[in-house]
Design brief:
Low-confidence stretches: 84-96
Number of helices: 5
Radius of gyration: 43 Å
CATH architecture of the domain at 84-187: Sandwich
Structural class: alpha+beta
Largest sheet: 8 strands, mixed
Shape: rod-shaped
Number of strands: 11
Distance between the termini: 107 Å
CATH topology of the domain at 84-187: Immunoglobulin-like
Helix content: 25-40%
Strand content: 25-35%
């Protein structure tokens, strides 16, 4: 090593700096910092913190599986196609299927003069009900056709800017009461 130091100026310089550093005494203002560092270096290392437990560690591992299964059943029940909607006052099912209200629907330019719906096989009589948005019935009628004209006194009540609901019930359905979903229409406001 002596031969290397004699030939290498860089290493000689580094060795001289190390000797000066080791021989130097701490100044009065550095003494507290040096003492603190020395204590920390000579004290035993603190134990690493214990690993944190999961917040749900008290829960058995099978509970999330049961929860997921319940969630899947709830989603299936919510999105599966429905045919029987609700029991009627007589206890039979209400069938909707392809039986539906056709016209009027949505925004209409003027009060409709006729209601139209799809036919349902083996039905001889339909009941049409016109309601305000609070479902207060303002008119109903029976017919054996799949359309019905609106009487003049009912037309007079259907003024621009109002919204109405209507529904058709098929009386005498083989498996109970068949009815359309509530259909909504809004009569456009006339511009001045």
């Amino acid at each position: 090593m002596e031969r290397h130091l004699a030939a290498c100026a860089y290493c000689r310089n580094e060795l001289a700096l190390m000797n000066v550093f080791e021989a130097a005494e701490a100044s009065a203002e550095e003494s507290p910092s040096v003492a603190w560092i020395a204590d920390r270096l000579h004290s035993p290392m603190a134990a690493p913190p214990a690993p944190r437990r999961r917040a749900w560690a008290w829960m058995p591992r099978w509970i999330p599986v049961v929860f997921a299964a319940c969630l899947l059943v709830a989603v299936y029940v919510a999105v599966r196609p429905h045919t029987a909607v609700a029991p009627t006052a007589t206890g039979g099912d209400v069938w909707r299927g392809s039986f539906r209200a056709i016209s009027p629907a949505g925004d209409v330019a003027a009060a409709p003069r006729e209601f139209t719906w799809s036919a349902m096989p083996q039905i001889r009589m339909y009941r049409v009900a016109l309601m305000e948005v609070d479902r207060h019935e303002i008119w109903s009628a029976r017919t054996n056709e799949t359309h019905i004209a609106v009487p003049p006194d009912v037309l007079a009540q259907m003024t621009p800017g109002r919204t109405f609901l209507w529904q058709v019930s098929a009386e005498g359905a083989p498996d109970g009461l068949a009815e359309t979903s509530l259909q909504e229409f809004h009569i456009a406001t006339e511009l001045p």
